[in-house]
Amino acid sequence: MSGNTKMLPSRKPTHHLERFSESDLPTSRGLFRIVIFRDKRDGKEHVAMVRGDVKKEGVPVRIHSECATSELFGSLRCDCRAQLDRALDFIAQGNVGVLLYLRQEGRGIGLGNKIKAYALQQDHGLDTVEANMKLGFPDDVRRYDIASEMLRSLGVQSVDLITNNPLKIAGLVDEGVPVRRRIPSRTLTNPLNVDYLKTKRDRSGHLIEFLEEDGSEAKAG
Ligand SMILES: [Zn+2]
């Protein structure tokens, strides 16, 4: 992929983060190293969960945005907690990889606005994209400069990205992080999140395959 001009970063590397603290962290999936990066602009603390030697090519990486409703409170409106769990499982099983946990709730619009969007969906039958538009937000305001800065600091040479979302690949490459390939992320559907997942697929370009035979599983990338 070197020599392909598409792989060249379109922007200069940013330096918004301070590598603030780190420690070994025993977890239910074995030992990780947790590294905290502080954004000098807003004080937000972004997390890297690191397993094994990641100063090399083709490191499995998941870029995950925080989702309090799903991860803390068990919401069934989205599949964030399942995606987080499966990415950590995958990294633990291969004994190498990085999970970046970015503090950008609700695709970057914040928890309060996310709940406003839920209310619009509930009361007016809008989908995720329409509700965000109505609130004045683009569909996805997440940024990838933070993720690329974290990966550079960790010494990752190139990435095998665990994702369903082609925008994430483009976002990383745009920030100068080579993506070697995509590792599909599988997730389960339920009656409450199937519309959300279909909107992701049909309106936001996510590569999600639904296994309609049993209606119980979605395969996403
Ligand atoms: Zn979520």
Could you give a short description of this structure?
The chain is of the alpha/beta class. It contains seven helices and ten strands.
Describe the secondary-structure layout:
Layout: E1 17-27, E2 30-39, E3 45-51, E4 59-65, H1 68-71, H2 80-94, E5 97-102, H3 111-124, H4 128-134, H5 145-154, E6 159-162, H6 166-174, E7 179-183, E8 185-188, H7 194-204, E9 208-211, E10 217-220
Parallel strand pairs: 4-5, 4-6, 6-7
Antiparallel strand pairs: 1-2, 2-3, 3-5, 8-10, 9-10
Helix pairs in contact: 3-4
The structure holds zinc ion (ZN).
Zinc ion binds next to loops.
Helix content: 25-40%
Spatial sequence of strands, sheet with the most strands: 1-2-3-5-4-6-7
Bound molecules: zinc ion
Rounded Rg: 17 Å
Strand content: 25-35%
Determine the mean pLDDT: 84
Structural class of the helix and strand makeup?
alpha/beta
Would you report the number of β strands? 10
The low-pLDDT segments are 1-6, 211-221
Give the SSE order as H and E letters: EEEEHHEHHHEHEEHEE
Any idea what the shape is? globular
Name the CATH class of the domain at 5-104 and 142-184.
Alpha Beta
Number of helices: 7
Distance between the termini: 21 Å
What is the CATH fold-level name of the domain at 5-104 and 142-184? Rossmann fold
CATH architecture tag of the domain at 5-104 and 142-184: 3-Layer(aba) Sandwich
CATH superfamily grouping of the domain at 5-104 and 142-184: GTP cyclohydrolase II
Largest sheet: 7 strands, mixed
